[in-house]
Specification:
Elements (H helix, E strand, L loop, with lengths): L2 H15 L11 H8 L3 H12 L10 H13 L9 H30 L13 H14 L3 H4 L6 H11 L4 H29 L7 H12 L1 H17 L1
Helix pairs in contact: 1-10, 2-3, 3-5, 4-5, 4-9, 4-10, 5-8, 5-9, 6-8
C-alpha cells in the first residue's frame, strides 16, 4: 500500500470527516484500506454481499465501489500485480459476483421465511425498511431489482421482498444479474476513469466519498418527498 495514502488519511481524511459518517469507521473506504491493508479487497467483497441482501443496510455501497476504482487507478490498491487494467477487470468480475450472491441469499431467505418476515421489527432491521421496499417493488415490479440497486436500504431489502413474493428464480436471477452489472460497472468505472484522468482525486478521497454518499441519498430524499406529498394530499 502506498505510504503517501496512509499518511494522508492519518493527517486529514478520516478524523475530519467522521462526524459526517456518524463516527462509523466501516463507512469510510479509506479507513478500511488503511486498517485491513492487503485484506481490504476481501473485506470489501464481504461488505457487498451483506449489503445486497443480508439485512444490514448501514454499509458503504456506492462510496465503496467508487473508492475501489479510485484506489486501483492511483495504485493504492494492487490485486494481481499485473497492472491496473487487469486489476480493474478482476474487481468488476469479483464485485458483480458478490452483488449477485448477496441478492440470491436475500431472495432465498425471503422465500423460505415468507410474509412473517415483513412484520419483523428490530433495532437495525426495521419494519419500515420492509414496508418501503415492498411499496417500491409493487410500484416497479421486476425492474425494481435493477432500479433498487441505486437506492440505499431498498438495495438491501428488495431482494428479500422478491423472495417473499415468490418471483420465479429464473426471472429473479436475470434481473438481479443485470442490476449487479450496471451498478458495479457504472460506479466502479466512474471512480477508476476519474482517478486516471484526475490523479489529484486520490489526495481528496475524503471529500469525494462524502459527495458520493450525498449523491446516493438523493433517490431516498426524492422518495421521501413523494410519500410526504401523497400523505398530505390524502389527509
Amino acid at each position: 500500500m502506498s505510504q503517501r495514502v496512509v499518511q494522508h488519511s492519518r493527517l486529514c481524511g478520516v478524523n475530519f470527516w467522521h462526524p459526517l459518517l456518524f463516527g462509523l469507521d466501516w463507512m469510510d473506504p479509506q479507513w478500511l484500506l488503511d486498517h485491513y491493508g492487503t485484506a481490504f479487497f476481501w473485506v470489501s467483497l464481504a461488505i457487498v454481499v451483506v449489503e445486497c441482501g443480508l439485512f444490514f443496510p448501514i454499509l458503504p455501497g456506492e462510496s465503496l465501489l467508487f473508492a475501489i476504482g479510485l484506489f486501483v487507478a492511483s495504485g493504492a490498491l494492487e490485486i494481481t500485480g499485473r497492472g491496473e487494467v487487469v486489476d480493474i477487470v478482476v474487481v468488476l468480475l469479483s464485485f458483480i459476483t458478490a452483488a449477485l450472491l448477496g441478492n440470491v441469499m436475500g431472495y432465498e431467505i425471503g422465500r423460505k421465511l415468507g410474509p412473517p418476515i415483513l412484520r419483523h421489527e428490530g433495532r437495525i432491521i426495521k419494519k419500515e425498511y420492509f414496508v418501503k421496499s415492498h411499496e417500491f417493488f409493487e410500484k416497479h415490479g421486476a425492474p425494481a431489482l435493477i432500479i433498487g440497486r441505486f437506492v440505499p436500504i431498498v438495495r438491501t431489502f428488495v431482494t428479500v421482498i422478491a423472495g417473499v413474493s415468490e418471483m420465479t428464480r429464473t426471472k429473479f436471477v436475470t434481473y438481479s444479474a443485470v442490476g449487479a452489472v450496471l451498478w458495479v460497472s457504472s460506479v466502479t468505472l466512474a471512480g477508476y476513469f476519474l482517478g486516471t484522468a484526475f490523479p489529484w482525486l486520490g489526495d481528496k478521497i475524503d471529500i469525494v466519498i462524502i459527495l458520493i454518499v450525498a449523491l446516493s441519498l438523493v433517490p431516498v430524499a426524492i422518495e421521501w418527498l413523494r410519500h410526504r406529498r401523497e400523505n398530505q394530499a390524502n389527509s
